Amino acid sequence: MYPDRVVSGMRPTGSLHLGHYHGALKNWIRLQAEQPCLFFVADWHALTTHYDDPSIIEKAAWEMMVDWLAAGVDPSQATLFIQSRVPEHAELHLLLSMATPLGWLERVPAYRDRVDNLAPHEQATYGFLGYPLLQAADVLVYRASAVPVGEDQLPHVEMMREIARRFNYLYGKEPGFEQKAQDAVKKLGSKRARLYNELRTQYQQNGDDEALAQAKAMLDEAGSLSMIDRERLFGYLEGSRKLILVEPQAQLTATARLPGLDGGKMSKSGGNAIGLREDKAGVTQKVRTMPTDPARVRRTDPGEPARCPVWQFHQVYSDTPTQEWAARGCRSAGIGCLECKQPVIDAIVAELEPMQERAQPYLDDPSLVRAIVADGVDTARKLAQETMRDVREAMGLDYT
Ligand code: ATP
Ligand code: MG
Asked: In this structure, which ligand is nearest to the CA of 152?
């Protein structure tokens, strides 16, 4: 019913690192060739943690855009823009906030984590509590069906789905819908109508997803229906009446959580990252000083790859023979840790070098990036405005 759009964003709070590349950008680059994609600099989200020191945000925003382009995001395929230039995100966030139960936000793991670990001078803010809802608005305002992100974002995407479902349930009312849906059921013919009703009951009473999928497949095959009746019957299945907002799905890469130099999640704020602009000397120094299996105190002590953060990098960067060489060498103390790290260093350097070359023209002429963003903002705004017209109408804020 709506085009299969892809939406994702990143916070301009520092330089991009390998986690961003393996966890998200790789999927952005894959999807941009297949579907309409919108990628945004989440500057309002940066304020949720940097409201007292917003001076870094603008510089980080332009640098991040260069890093995306350098990694292979293609502005002739994808729309690149800055969140705060599309105020429809904020309008949808405000409207969604009216019907979002406080408990949904308070239960978000990232919020719990922050509240439990506040430093003495920090406080929990309204903006931080609401940021998963702003994320929901960022995605729902484009009716996106896919959100390519890292694993840490899964609970947020799950909440987006609940928010969309709740919105459609509350506001997706078409006058006389029930009667119209039942008329459409009759048009299925008696055999299919009976099956449809059975499957609908099974789904609504027992939440049986299999029944839902079966009913949808049956509707897809039923040739006798008009488009509008088919849409009604899809909506009627799930109890919602008209799909104004679309429930998106997360899209993970094979490396949905890249560990950092210390074995925890690689993160901008964790001081454990290898940046996409790191040169050979920087990469070499960082990997060479990475901790390894604590059991390998001396070169002759055998180790266990499962306990070593470097092994996780081998799993991302090395082919099978190299992995076997590293695992065998570690368990038998046949190789030293520095030896084991070298193929990882070489692979990271080889991955980053072409990116750094591709970044150069944009660094030399920043007006190129500004033009890309200006175009992207125009495109994104038009799409967001279409959704907002339907949202306002559904909520009785039409005033025409
Ligand atoms: P911060 O510490 O400021 O939260 P971050 O490094 O977590 O920074 P974000 O801007 O929050 O970066 O994340 C942007 C995107 O990159 C998200 O989709 C996130 O899931 C993904 N991502 C970030 N770090 C990793 C990682 N280590 N592995 C896989 N994906 C990651
Ligand atoms: Mg993060």
From this structure: 1
DSSP 150: -
- Give the least confident one: 90-99, 194-203, 241-250, 327-336: 241-250
Q: Which of 50, 252, 48 is nearest to 134 (CA)?
A: 48
Q: Could you read off the pLDDT of 279-294 as tens digits, one per residue?
A: 999 999 999 999 999 9
Task: Name which residue sits closest to atom 14 of ligand 1, judged by CA.
Answer: 10
The helix/strand/coil state of 294 is coil
Tokens representing residue 4 in the block: 């299969």
Q: Is residue 173 over pLDDT 80?
A: no
In ligand 1, the atom with minimum distance to the C-alpha of 256 is 29
| Ligand 2 centroid from CA 356, angstroms | 24
> Cα of 214 to ligand 1 centre, how many Å?
37
Class of domain 278-363: mainly alpha
CATH fold of 6-171+245-257+365-394, please? Answer: Rossmann fold (3.40.50)
Question: Burial of 398 by CB count in 10 Å (0-12 exposed, 13-18 middle, 19+ buried)?
Answer: exposed
CA 8 to centroid of ligand 2, rounded, Å? 13
CA 335 – ligand 2 centroid, Å? 36
- Taking the domains of the chain in order of start, what are their residue ranges? 6-171+245-257+365-394, 177-238, 278-363
Mapping DSSP to helix (H, G, I), strand (E, B) and coil, where does residue 395 land?
coil
Give the binding-site residues of ligand 1, using a 6 Å CB cut-off: 10-11, 13, 19-20, 23-24, 149-150, 152-153, 256-258, 265-269
pLDDT tens-digit profile of 102-140?
999 999 999 999 999 998 888 999 999 999 999 999 999
Identify which ligand lies nearest to the alpha carbon of 265: 1
Q: Report d(CA 74, CA 70) in Å as an integer.
A: 9
State the ipTM, two decimals.
0.96
Predicted confidence at residue 183, as pLDDT, reads: 92
Best mutation site among 20, 128, 266 for ligand 1, i.e. most ligand atoms within 8 A of its Cβ?
20
pLDDT band at 363 (very low <50, low <70, confident <90, very high): very high
DSSP 306: G
Cα 10 to averaged position of ligand 2 atoms, centre (Å) = 8
